[in-house]
Each structure stands twice: as structure tokens, then as C-alpha cells.
Amino acid sequence: MEFSFDINQLFPERISILDQTLEAGRKTAGRPDLQENVATVLDELGRASAKAQQLTAPITSASKLQLQKHQLYLMKDGEANGGRGAVVGFLKVGYKKLFLLDRQGAHVEAEPLCILDFYIAENRQRHGYGLELFNFMLQHKHVEPALMAFDRPSPKFLSFLAKHYNLTQSIPQVNNFVVFEGFFFDKSAGQ
Ligand code: ACO
Asked: CB of 183 closer than 6 A to ligand 1?
């Protein structure tokens, strides 16, 4: 995903972590012109992700990120577009208070880290970028995939989770979140 402005100036690292401040690095702090470009990138990514998932409206945008306590991992290819860089994709996570059903169908209140949105540019899918981004987030958050919840995972994402993390056995829920076998493991260990 290419832009008319310099992606490498906005995002110095291969993977940048963005939050409510929309500051991608020290350079963008106190620079409204650069923050505007960050917002353009986030809005474009949100629209592309929504289109890929056939959603009626984006779940990611600059203004939504400013309002919510989420974290967004943004990956770039610094060498693309004649050295100006291109955006490869993003992964958005956040903690959510959820009412879940355990294996026995009992209600459990939990506040897991959730995968809220995930997108890799169409022409780069199935090249391992998603895995690199997801593994970066796991290390940064010190979390295991089985202990996370997934908001309305798409068929491609379910296939991704099965392939890379062996997550295949989901526990039926009454909301849009999916959790897998192992999510309740710690809590039921002493029973
Ligand atoms: N069809 C089926 N499975 C796919 C596809 C596809 N077109 N693309 C990726 N996958 C899955 C497969 O398991 C694939 O393994 P395989 O090629 O051996 O079948 C595996 O992902 C490949 O892993 P990566 O290359 O690391 O994944 P990628 O970089 O493509 O990122 C992602 C995965 C983010 C799901 C990407 O395909 C994408 O952006 N898809 C469109 C948007 C989307 O569905 N996002 C998830 C939304 S749900 C949520 O965010 C909670």
C-alpha cells in the first residue's frame, strides 16, 4: 500500500506501535502535518480491511484509535516505492470485558486481550507478513494465542490461527468472540 508521502519518515521502525496519541515515533510528536499523514494511513488501512472482510463500515480509523484504548501494530516495507516505503498491514488489539461460556457452558467473566482487526495488503497475503506481525505482538504483550479472544474472525484468519498456532477447537459462545481450547485451562486446572 503506497502513499504520496514518505512512509519511512512517518514510521522509522519495520513495526510501529500506535495508540491514542497517533504518534508513530519521536518525529511525528508535535508535527500536525505528519500526524495528518499518519491519520490518512490509518483511515486507508481501516477501509481496506473492512472491504477485505466485507464489513459495511471500517472498525479501524484514526479517530476511532484516538477514542479507544487500543494498540495498533503497523508493518512497513522500507525498501518499497523507490525507497519511500510502503505499508504492509496492521494488527489491532485491546482488552475487552467479555462474558464467555466455558467448556461446561458456565458463564465466566474475563478481560482478555482481543484481536480486533488484522489486515495484510492483498498483494502481500500468504507471504508470512501476518505471522511476523502477530508474533511481534505476542512477544510485546507477553501473551499466548490460546489466551486471547478473537472478534468475528474471518475464514482466512481462522485458517491462519489453525496453521500457525494449532488453534482449531473453539468453544461455542453467544457473542461474536471466538476463544479456543486452552483459554480456560489455567482457571480450571485446580478443579
Ligand atoms: N485463503 C485462505 N487462507 C489464507 C488466505 C487466503 N486467501 N490468506 C492467508 N491465509 C491463512 C492460511 O492459513 C495461510 O496458510 P497457507 O497459505 O498455507 O494456506 C496463512 O494464513 C498464511 O500465513 P501468513 O502469510 O503469515 O498470513 P497473511 O500475511 O496472509 O495474513 C491475514 C493473514 C491477516 C488473515 C490476511 O490474509 C488478510 O489480511 N486477510 C484479509 C483480511 C482478514 O480476513 N483479516 C482478519 C479479520 S478477523 C479479525 O481481525 C479478528
From this structure: no
